[in-house]
Amino acid sequence: PSGPRAVPATPYAFTHDPATTALVVIDMQRDFLEPGGFGEMLGNDVSQLQRVVAPLSATLAACRAAGMLVIHTREGHRPDLSDCPPAKLVRGGGDTRIGDPGPRGRILVRGEEGHDIVDELAPVGDEIVLDKPGKGAFYATDLEAILRNAGIRSLVVTGVTTEVCVHTTVREANDRGFECLVLEDCCGSYFPEFHEVGLKMIAAQGGIFGWVAPSGAFLDGLV
Ligand code: C5J
After folding, report:
1. Are the beta carbons of 186 and 158 closer than 8 angstroms?
2. Looking at ligand 1, which atom is closest to the CA of residue 159?
3. How far apart are the first and last CA of the chain?
4. Catalytic: which of 63, 84, 165, 186?
5. Which chain regions cross the lipid bilayer (predicted)?
6. For a Cys staple, 14 with which of 56, 144, 181, 197, CB 3.0–4.6 Å?
7. What lines the ligand 1 site, CB under 6 Å?
């Protein structure tokens, strides 16, 4: 089918048209999901994020089949680290920092293997890959121009981590007038309680930042 459809969601149905909806996949990078990267450097148990990969892979496949715009983001910095705020560089407190060598190259540096997206979710064809220096995908990027030029009104937001880069991006998008549906099983956090409460914060107060639904509810209405 074509045209608008309603996805059962919290706090109420999310109405969108796939022709004007983009799937945004946030920071599904080796540096966050695999040992030795930025996530682990900050003291996190990276295995917490692995459960996101399978449902997100299915969602990605369905959005591709539906012809939706797909945008992947990657958090990271220039090799000379000139775009990395000093406070971010020293964060984590451990011996390893952004730019230091890790098992998959220099940590959180563009062009390195660890900075790239995990194999299961690798971009295909002309899908947009957006490099961002911050947590929000709109900050210091051309995302807003890309979305407006493509006539996008709604975003289906996925990726990691729920309470950091997903949340920041949803807040930025909401303020710009984009309607965001966050797929709960396609997002993840190193802290399960932050994931839960982060989702609640999005949909509370009548959907203050957006809507939340399981990927199944979204995919049922897509085909
Ligand atoms: C973090 C992100 N958590 N992609 N980055 O530092 O959420």
Report:
1. yes
2. 4
3. 7
4. 165
5. none
6. 181
7. 27, 32, 75, 135, 160-161, 164-165
**CA–CA distance, 40 with 96 (Å, rounded to integer):** 10
99 vs 78: CA distance, rounded Å:
9
> Could you report the per-residue pLDDT of 54-95, keeping only the tens digit for each?
999 999 999 999 999 999 999 999 999 999 999 999 887 778
Two structure tokens written together for 67: 């012809």
Q: CB–CB of 69/59 below 8 Å? A: no
Peptide bond into 11 cis (omega under 30): yes
pLDDT digit string (tens) for 2-53? 899 999 999 999 999 999 999 999 999 999 999 988 898 888 999 999 999 9
Best mutation site among 41, 135, 168, 189 for ligand 1, i.e. most ligand atoms within 8 A of its Cβ? 135
